[in-house]
Amino acid sequence: MMTKTRIALIGGGPSALSILKKALCFCGKQLDDNDSVTGRASPHLTFDIFERNTALGKGMPYSKDGASWEHITNISSDELAPFDETLLEWLRQQSTEYLAKYQIEKTKLHEKHVVPRLLFGEYLQAQFCELIGRCRAAGIHVNVHLQCNVLDIKPSTADENSLERNNSPERLGSLERNNSLERNHSPERGSSPERGSSPERGSSPERQTSPEPVTSESHTGINILTDNGWVTGFDKVVICTGHIWPKTHEGKVKGYFDSPYPPTKLQQKYNHTIALKGSSLTAIDAIRTLSEANGEFYQTDNQLKYRLFDDVPDFKIIMHSLEGLLPNIRFHLDDPLVSDEGMLSEQEIAQHRADNDGFLSLDFIFERNFKAALNKLDTVFYQKIANKNIESFCQWMLDSRKAYEPFTLFKIEYLQAEQSIKQQSTLQWKEALALLSFTINHPAKYFSAEDTLRLRNHLLPLIGLMIANIPQSSAAQLLALHDSGVLDIIAVDSSSRLEIEGDGDFQFHFKDEDNKPTVNTYKTFIDCTGQKSLPIDAFPFKSMFAGAEPLVAKVRFKDKYQGKKHLVETPNSVCKGSDNEYYLETGGFAINDDFQPILANGSLNERYFVMAVPYISGFNPDYSGFDFCDQVAELIVTKLGESKEQ
């Protein structure tokens, strides 16, 4: 007999979308294997999706929480792992008038088109709703709880489950499920802040009929506390909460912003210089928001220009960036779908670890997954780096970029990327570097502490620049802002720091190009360094690990002498274990290869899966993007599929 496995997805953004997509594929394979004559599987997986906002699929980046109409995606239709309907196919189904509200000409659509993030959010919502319909048609129960804040997650005992049964899904469920779906009539659906209305098709989950609730009278489980009460009886929980932007000084110190999100908080006029920390995609978001609020872009002689509004003549933005470097610009990809085909196999990695005291060598993966791959793609470039290790390669790349003034190099790379797109010719080494980043992510937990530090100090900063891939339109705006004198960049090093003197009084300390200590004073400061890793203490669902403390992610030093040395130098991040080995704490949850949290006693908590990016970066340093969601969802659903009763 096969019992139902009830799964709660905490968060209804792109991660949850990927989980549900993989679950449907899994159950479809079950149907094929069973050769059912009914056309319906008998899936044992059932899902409740808890989303605090009014719509599914969008998450933070593609909703008003993370975007306004001016923000553009950095991913095109052909770079997305396929849904039932591609982005291009969905766009072509929308009316000319609807697309025009997002400044898109329907006749010029193509698979390389990058679209406004709010429009992309509508696409994701439409795919989620269609997917729910397909799941239900296949016999997979899916319950949706919109505008539902999850406050805590608590494993139950038999007594607790009995007491809380009055507020179970069977009690709350029917009204909650139906009403939550109908909330998608919210004005947010299908609209941008000032433009846009709902598309004509494919985005209305309320058209789906809620299934009968799955009974769970006979077992204990996991209870979800929401602002509507308890929902009980789950077997598994997947944390899909996505980006989190905790506030440290924002709201307490006037003029300080911990992030540029939501962008509405920055949509005002500033007649002074604004300091941004960072030059990543997060900084690009802040720049687009601020520039739209304080001036306007216009075309003259086929060139984009920018002019300030008359009442803010002193408006200016200064980025403070490590080494004064700007991110990479989107170029043509020969292989738009990220794949580890041709890379080190799981068997090769396992054998390498078996021969190296359990460690995976960063040099080994760099040689095999980057240099060897590049030798097949671009022998000319390969010859330049054939004898370089990670440190010398990264330094060579950074030195070659620092040979130019930042915006001069940015203009050169803008023209190179433009030619790459027009001629459909890739930049092989950049594509290979992006693939290296993807293939490093999952096995990074097996690096030694020494290699983890090398990865953080050398390779990741370079990768962060090279795979940012900002859209052409954003690059054109940055160049126009710089040409108008509104945007500039200052090179800083890791010793730079901010001192908060009071409201609207921020002193940024750094060393200039002559290594001379310098202090700049600003009235407004925005932290644009992107999503930060968060400690387990910041995890909001405190009861999840009641009586079973989770293990903090940490990696062992291969050389005890180095471990002891780092313990003296950085005692807050290095510890000595009960096994007398030295460990570098990398932060967040220690998770296994299936994204299940490891407990402090060394055992697994097999009830939970964590794919919330801020809490797993200690073991997954490159965790962004739809390729990550797709890869992790495959692993989690495969593991969930093993939970059926034999």
UniProtKB/TrEMBL annotation:
It comes from the Bacteria. Residues 8-164 form the FAD-dependent urate hydroxylase HpyO/Asp monooxygenase CreE-like FAD/NAD(P)-binding domain. Pfam families: NAD_binding_9 (PF13454). InterPro entries: FAD/NAD-bd_sf, HpyO/CreE_NAD-binding, L-asp_N-monooxygenase_NS-form. Residues 159-221 are annotated as: Disordered. Residues 205-221 have a biased composition (Polar residues). Residues 179-192 have a biased composition (Basic and acidic residues). This is FAD-dependent urate hydroxylase HpyO/Asp monooxygenase CreE-like FAD/NAD(P)-binding domain-containing protein.
